Amino acid sequence: MGDKKNKNCVWNFMVCFGVVTLLICCVRPNKMVGSSDPKKENTFYQYNIWWGFVNKVFEGDLTVKELKTKGDIGLGSYSKLDGELVMLDGVPYRIREDGVVDVPLDDELIVYVDAAFFEPEDSFKLQSTNFDSLIVKINSQLPSLNQFYSFKVKGNFSYMKCGGLYRQEKPFEKGLDELIPQRPVFERVNVKGTMVGFYCPEFIGNINVAGYHFHFISDDKTFGGHVMEFNTNELDVEYDPLLEYHFTLPDSKDFLNVSLEKEFQYQKK
């Protein structure tokens, strides 16, 4: 009787162990799929560092496909400075040196980008605003200038002036100090669209650009670039505080061997 009871206990244990093992095998793959590259809310993602960009690291290895896993808004530049990058609602647009706007293929490369998943925490409206007054008014609305922020700024602009960059080829001889004053400029009147932007505190140093940085894309997706000047009667401003910062360095010989000595001298927008 005792032997039979022991056999039953062993049998029950084996059955339970088998069921648990089966459940673990079924659950683990689902957990792995669900946890692969989750959205990092409240995280500022950056590819390349500003100081590398200043020192003529103009080729990158971040693909457009990979960028889409890092955020749904963003701004930056494509490899070889082949167009300004502005990502809105998960779509990365490219404004080329002639002002033409397109959507690059997933395997195309990016040299520099800021990105985030945008979940606005607060919003406000501004009246009769230009670029300089926008900065002053945003500063007065933010809870602190000691953290990072992402922005969506929507409006009907009576005037918008954007800049681009000319595509470069190796050997890269001119740095941003020379390229930015010679940049192509795009202007439009009475244009509706969205400025995507980021704010970095002064303590960011040479990792990124301290202060505000905005790129623009029109609602009809035919005009955009780096925001230089604008005028508008009303703006809708949304912002999202970003409490974590994550950057990825280019995996390239150019970045590994570059001398990070040159400071950025050009201070205009």
From TrEMBL:
Catalytic activity reported: (2S)-2-acetolactate + H(+) = (R)-acetoin + CO2
Pathway named in the protein's UniProt entry: Polyol metabolism; (R,R)-butane-2,3-diol biosynthesis; (R,R)-butane-2,3-diol from pyruvate: step 2/3
Domain of life, source organism: Bacteria
Keywords: Acetoin biosynthesis, Decarboxylase, Lyase
EC numbers, comma separated: 4.1.1.5
GO biological process terms held by the UniProt record: acetoin biosynthetic process
Membrane spanning stretches: none
Pfam families: AAL_decarboxy
Broadest EC class assigned to this enzyme: lyase
GO molecular function, one term: acetolactate decarboxylase activity
Family: Belongs to the alpha-acetolactate decarboxylase family.
Name of the featured protein: Alpha-acetolactate decarboxylase
UniProt organism field: Maribacter algicola
